[in-house]
Model the fold of this input.
Amino acid sequence: MRIFQRFEVWLLLIAGIIAIWWSFSPGPNPAETGPGAEISTDSPMQLRRCTLERDFGNARLDLEVRYKNTSPRPLSMQPPDVRLLNAAGKDVPPFVLPVERPPSIEAQTTGDLRLRFWLEKADLAGPLTLEIRSQKLEVKNSTPLDLEKLENAKPKVWTTAEWVP
Done:
């Protein structure tokens, strides 16, 4: 084939291979180097970072959590083992993308996980509590957060449960 004798074809093939390699290579873990990295390792569950991104009348919440799985079996981070509860005690639904597998943690290990939830405006009026196998962690305190005051599609990051706009 004469097509492989052209310089441009080889250049495009190399650029494609580099792009595929770059998209699958792991980057630095911000939970290990960013704000909140100095948290005590004594507790079985630690909040590392909360990222809230408004999507018009709703918001996506990404929680970066360090969790110690003391169970003899692996834990898939999805309901009913993992729940986010609003002030009324109602479950906040997880945010699921069909192409992403739910995060999991092996038995008898500690790991950093990213959990995603889909919030409504009413969920931000009070506290939010993450519950993993009956262990509870305060994600947001009772101070109300007005979703309308946040810019649409611009992420807002907190490293504690005190969310101040």
